[in-house]
């Protein structure tokens, strides 16, 4: 009889343990099912396209570019033929001095660079290169980068103003790792990457412009 009582007691203890294990976990008042918050996945930072040597090269090219332009200070251009000849000469010298992107071009002289006597005002004192402000910009929608260097120019003649006009030299890096000037808004005209990035809405063509321009 005593053995039966002990067995019954042991059986009750086992049942009590099982019932405790099977009890559901209760949540605090007002709480639903507790779910562990997932930590946000951080995307890896994009590696810079322009390395230190590329930035140094772009700064040097910017200085060479301005140096070539200043060679034309004091030149005159009255007729269409003179303007065309001056444009061809300037285009050749700029392209011989620095690398210009294949889809960019050197534009013609405008009234902005001439005084009232049609003399070119391109002295070095009118230019200021802010090479310390060189900045790499990544355009996510078109998946390309460019390096920008600010430049100012004091406009002469009837278009003159108290403050120098601001320009920006835009450099790109080709698939062959060559640094090239793609545009500056002064004498070099080319693809506006910032504008193209804002226009790009079709994800299927994300790399189309990048492949067309053959840049990184």
UniProtKB/TrEMBL annotation:
<feature type="compositionally biased region" description="Basic and acidic residues">
    <location>
        <begin position="205"/>
        <end position="216"/>
    </location>
</feature>
<feature type="compositionally biased region" description="Basic and acidic residues">
    <location>
        <begin position="34"/>
        <end position="44"/>
    </location>
</feature>
<feature type="region of interest" description="Disordered">
    <location>
        <begin position="22"/>
        <end position="44"/>
    </location>
</feature>
<feature type="signal peptide">
    <location>
        <begin position="1"/>
        <end position="21"/>
    </location>
</feature>
<protein>
    <recommendedName>
        <fullName>Lipoprotein</fullName>
    </recommendedName>
</protein>
<feature type="region of interest" description="Disordered">
    <location>
        <begin position="197"/>
        <end position="216"/>
    </location>
</feature>
<keyword id="KW-0732">Signal</keyword>
């Amino acid at each position: 009889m005593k053995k039966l009582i002990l067995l019954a007691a042991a059986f009750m203890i086992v049942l009590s343990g099982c019932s405790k294990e099977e009890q559901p976990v209760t949540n605090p008042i007002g709480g639903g099912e507790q779910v562990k918050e997932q930590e946000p996945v951080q995307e890896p930072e994009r590696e810079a396209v322009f390395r230190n040597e590329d930035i140094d090269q772009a700064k040097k090219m910017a200085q060479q570019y301005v140096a070539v332009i200043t060679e034309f200070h004091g030149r005159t251009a009255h007729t269409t033929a003179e303007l065309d000849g001056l444009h061809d000469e300037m285009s050749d010298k700029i392209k011989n001095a620095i690398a210009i992107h294949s889809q960019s071009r050197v534009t013609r002289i405008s009234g902005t660079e001439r005084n009232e006597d049609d003399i070119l005002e391109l002295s070095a004192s009118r230019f200021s290169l802010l090479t310390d402000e060189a900045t790499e910009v990544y355009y996510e929608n078109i998946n390309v980068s460019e390096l920008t260097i600010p430049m100012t120019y004091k406009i002469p003649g009837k278009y003159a103003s108290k403050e120098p006009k601001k320009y920006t030299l835009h450099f790109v890096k080709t698939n062959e790792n060559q640094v090239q000037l793609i545009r500056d808004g002064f004498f070099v005209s080319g693809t506006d990457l910032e504008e193209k990035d804002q226009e790009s809405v079709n994800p299927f063509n994300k790399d189309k412009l990048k492949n067309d321009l053959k840049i990184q």
